[in-house]
Amino acid sequence: MSLNYRIDNLQYANWSEKIFKQMRDGKVDAVHVTIVYHENFREMVAEIEKWNSYFERFPKLIFHGKYAEDVKLARETDRTAIFFGFQNPSPIEDDIGLVEICHSLGVRFMQLTYNNQSLLATGCYEAEDPGVTRMGREVIEEMNRVGLVVDMSHSAERSTLDAIDISSRPIAITHANPAFWHPAKRNKSNEVLKALAAKGGMLGLSLYPHHLKDGSDCTLESFCQMVADTADLMGVENVGLGSDLCQDQPDSVVEWMRVGRWTKKIDYGEGSKDNAGFPPMPTWFEDNRHFGNIEAGLKQHGFNEADCAAVMGMNWLNFYEKNFVPEK
Amino acid sequence: MSLNYRIDNLQYANWSEKIFKQMRDGKVDAVHVTIVYHENFREMVAEIEKWNSYFERFPKLIFHGKYAEDVKLARETDRTAIFFGFQNPSPIEDDIGLVEICHSLGVRFMQLTYNNQSLLATGCYEAEDPGVTRMGREVIEEMNRVGLVVDMSHSAERSTLDAIDISSRPIAITHANPAFWHPAKRNKSNEVLKALAAKGGMLGLSLYPHHLKDGSDCTLESFCQMVADTADLMGVENVGLGSDLCQDQPDSVVEWMRVGRWTKKIDYGEGSKDNAGFPPMPTWFEDNRHFGNIEAGLKQHGFNEADCAAVMGMNWLNFYEKNFVPEK
What is the three-state SS of A251-276? Predict the structure, then answer.
């Protein structure tokens, strides 16, 4: 059996047959897709209904991935397994029982926050970060029980350290980079990265230009050097990819991501008034067909076969194996 | 492996540890439980949340059954597998995409109607029965695709014949008796029963007094004679149990079942003003501990081992094996 699976642990594209074909062209065995930002439970279910219709329309390209075995099934059947995740806990509303319901529906990652304070924890754009809330502690315990992974990609520092500490199972930062490379608000401190790794957690490295040194002009060499430095800091077994690819999305979508229903004003998030939309991707990673560029870049940089395979997918596969099933 | 599983294909009790223990005492391997009558999607999800909390509190007695294998697992682990069903299609609202969502949540039976006209078909208390509707045809096809069984227990004659005809997979009448034995509005004509059996469908025989000859005073001998006569009519392989046990329910619940939110008046359904509540069960079938009485009664009546095992559970198990999985 092949030991070099390709897994991208975060995308949020304007889904189409074209993109699903590109996943196949790029030999991507599994993708964790964001299905909601600010949606409530019923709106989230409508998003799963949309995905079910994609699965029905494109059964030769994609299927709903639920467990680690599905990544292997994807490889065997030349398809891409699609795993669901939330970037906000809004779909569980104020109801802890919905955690298990969401897991039953195949959801495998949930951010405790997007950019703002949630019922559970604090987002990275808040001025104050009081840490994981009372309900947050209960929900982490329930997520641990059922096998829904805590994702702190958009959360603030203290809340993230709290979540790592409180969670009895490893957590994930599915899409972010180290702040030591590029000090963006969304990138993570060495303290967070070391604490994450110490508990067996995973970091998915992002290709989203706002998270990259030199933005859209970031070079593949600079990215691969960062991967090597991050592996030195965290251990190579705790590092994977989470590209944050937002392909073909109209700029109205980034506005929904940033503004939701929480303000009547415009919030530019990581962008700015002059650069409000989705930034152009680096030329060496424009879509799913370019995963080979990253793999080649890592090898060029000096990663051996095993470490390269670990970063490209095996680490996420190992993480899926341990963390998507209910607690024993 | 034992070939005499006990399956009750319809109960709606006021669930408690006492009842789950009685299921074990009665060696009941699987029960199809009604989780909603008139609830909408979100209210239905809240009912599953309640069941999840029972599964968490009583893991040594019950668990959520999803496929036929779970009946065998139940036997091996000395527990009862609980299968979910709806007595009304209200949880799918007007949204066909919710059929697959409900199947993902573990729902395995859905009545196209309760007593009234629904969006899909006609209930047995309507004056007119125009048959399966436009949406009903679409929903039956979708239920066939995903493996959600059409149940016509409370439906009117023409709608039931339509559903049997339209469905590409066998359907079920989970809880009713033949009208030839007791001509109640809820009991079924020979024409329906023969059409049901001709397509491989199942009839779950009811122990609910309003469906029994002589009501609460029905004798075990009379019941067993009816089972034999029904097996002669339909083939013994198409007959099982669906007791309709409504144990420990307050009479307010039968009012919700009958009245829902569709009228401001009182509707007595199968009861009457003088007999509005739940009628007392026959002394030989008061709760789950009494399944042995039925088994003994059938043997006493002359059923051989194989036919007795077929009626007590094997027929439902075979039906689960074929009909809970997606269409190939």
Answer: HHHHHHHHHCCCCCCCCCCCCECCEC
**Chain B residues lying within 8 Å of A98, measured CB to CB:** 45, 49
Q: Which residue of A has its CA nearest to B41?
A: A42
A14 near A253, Cβ under 8 Å? yes
In the A/B pair of chains, how many CB contacts fall below 8 A?
A: 41
Residue of A nearest to B53 (CA): A97
How sure is the predictor about A325, in pLDDT bands with cuts at 50, 70 and 90?
Answer: very high
Give the count of domains, chain B: 1
- ipTM exceeds 0.85, yes or no: yes
- Is A218 within the bounds of a domain? yes
Could you tell me if residue A328 is inside a domain? Answer: no
Domain presence at residue B78: yes
CB contact under 8 A, A45 and B100: no
- Burial zone of A78 (CB within 10 Å; 0-12 exposed, 13-18 middle, 19+ buried): exposed
CA B263 to CA A226: how far, in whole Å?
67
* Residue of A101, A103, A141, A142 to mutate, interface with B, max B Cβ within 10 Å: A101
Nearest to A19 by CA among A316, A292, A286, A314: A286
Q: Which domain does B161 fall in, by range?
A: 7-323
Enter the DSSP assignment of B121.
Answer: -
Domain with residue B271: its CATH number is 3.20.20.140
Query: Per-residue pLDDT tens for A118-158?
Result: 999 999 999 999 999 999 999 999 999 999 999 999 999 99
Q: For residues A130 and A242, give the distance between their C-alpha atoms in angstroms, rounded to a whole number.
A: 27
Burial of B51 (0-12, 13-18, 19+ CB in 10 A): middle
Predicted TM-score (pTM) of this structure: 0.93
- H or E element that contains A31: strand A30-36
CA atoms within 13 A of residue B119's CA, in its CB half-sphere: 14
- Whether the predicted pLDDT of A2 surpasses 80: no
The answer to whether the CB of B20 falls within 8 A of the CB of B80 is: yes
Average pLDDT over residues A67-78: 98
d(CA A90, CA A253) in angstroms, rounded, equals 17
Q: Beta partners for B111?
A: B151
Has residue B232 been placed in a domain?
yes
Q: Are A182 and A212 in contact (CB under 8 A)?
A: yes
Angle between helical axes of A157-166 and A134-146 (0-180°, round to 10): 50
Instruction: Using an 8 Å CB-CB cutoff, list residues of chain A that contact chain B.
Output: 41-42, 45-46, 48-49, 52-53, 95, 97-98, 100-101, 104-106
Q: What Å distances lie between residue A244 and A22, A207, A286, CA to CA?
A: 16, 6, 11
